[in-house]
Write a structure and sequence with these properties.
Rossmann fold; Hypothetical Protein, Haloacid Dehalogenase-like Hydrolase, Chain: A, domain 2; 2 domains; five-stranded antiparallel beta sheet
Length: 245
């Protein structure tokens, strides 16, 4: 797998970050060496911008951030390049469904992340992503069944115990396409690393698609290769093997 990598797209939770939500020394060093070699490193995450940006600064990243599963694309100078919103009436219905089923939810607006126990007037905000989670798979499956009534939604997850909802067509892969067009880089020159269903399209479409050792099986099945887990510097090892010269 000898491809010239010009951009590395990294998922955060379960991928770049260890269970303590830290970036390991080896991961940091590999990212710094990639930057030194002129390779762009982009965080591509389901997180909101506010909880992604501090890591970008810590890692001295220079270019772009993909947040809310592709719902927003930012520069590290905090310039918003693109935003794709969930319809407010859809979010109201999703809120009602999670209330009726009794399942934990979180919602990313353009301003903040609302957790389950926070009061929110849905109409007062613009929405990027809706998530819900439960260890009770019957409840998760009931949510999925109820979601079949909606057209125009993109359903993924960041853990086997959750569902993440974006507008149809919004994905990390679609956001990477946008950045590739902007920078003149082809998807063949991209290495994408992730562990969950919200990473699957970018892993499939990248020139080098890397699944973490701790990834869900569906991700490992479509990836070009499987690296070590997020406890074992999987990101750093993949960068060293496939991107660095």
């Amino acid at each position: 797998m000898t491809k010239s990598i010009k951009l590395i797209a990294l998922d955060m939770d379960g991928t770049l970050l260890n269970p303590e939500l830290e970036v390991s020394k080896r991961n940091k060093e590999a990212i710094q060496e990639a930057l030194n070699q002129g390779i762009q490193v982009v965080l591509s995450t389901g997180r909101a911008f506010s909880t992604c940006y501090p890591y970008a600064k810590e890692l001295n990243l220079q270019t772009f951030l993909i947040t809310a599963n592709g719902g927003e694309i930012w520069t590290v100078e905090k310039e918003l390049l693109r935003r794709q919103l969930l319809a407010t009436d859809v979010v109201e219905k999703l809120y009602q469904i999670t209330e009726e089923i009794g399942i934990r939810r979180w919602m990313i607006s353009t301003e903040k992340v609302f957790q389950d126990d926070e009061f929110v007037n849905v109409k007062d905000h613009q929405w990027l992503k809706f998530g819900c989670a439960s260890e009770d798979l019957d409840k998760l499956n009931e949510v999925k069944r109820r979601l079949t009534q909606f057209d125009g939604l993109e359903l993924t997850n960041s853990l086997p115990t959750n569902i993440e909802i974006n507008p149809k067509g919004v994905s990390k892969a679609n956001a990477l396409d946008f950045l590739c067009e902007r920078t003149g880089i082809s998807m063949e020159e991209v290495m994408a690393v992730g562990d969950s269903l919200n990473d699957i399209k970018m892993i499939q479409q990248a020139g080098v698609g890397v699944a973490m050792g701790n990834a869900q099986d569906k991700i490992k099945e479509v990836a070009n290769t499987v690296t070590a887990s997020n406890l074992e510097d999987g990101v750093g090892k993949a960068i060293e093997k496939f991107a660095l010269k």
